[in-house]
TrEMBL record:
This is SPOR domain-containing protein. It comes from the Bacteria. It comes from Nonomuraea soli. Residues 17-27, 42-57 have a biased composition (Basic and acidic residues). Residues 17-57 are annotated as: Disordered.
Length: 57
């Protein structure tokens, strides 16, 4: 199967191709399976960076 976009399904905690769960249950799209697999880690890092901004203000 060849696809150019991938999503991370929050409901099933796995990477999915375009034909997957509804978008309301997913993060993405991402350009690769590997990028989609790191979606939760990236979101965590971004949240921590954003929360750190609150401490500086």
């Amino acid at each position: 199967m060849s696809t150019s976009q991938w999503w991370f399904c929050l409901k099933h905690q796995r990477v999915e191709p375009e034909q997957g769960c509804p978008n309301k249950d997913r993060m993405g799209p991402y350009a690769s399976e590997q990028e989609a697999a790191g979606a939760l880690q990236r979101a965590k890092e971004r949240n921590e960076a954003y929360d750190g901004r609150d401490d500086e203000e």
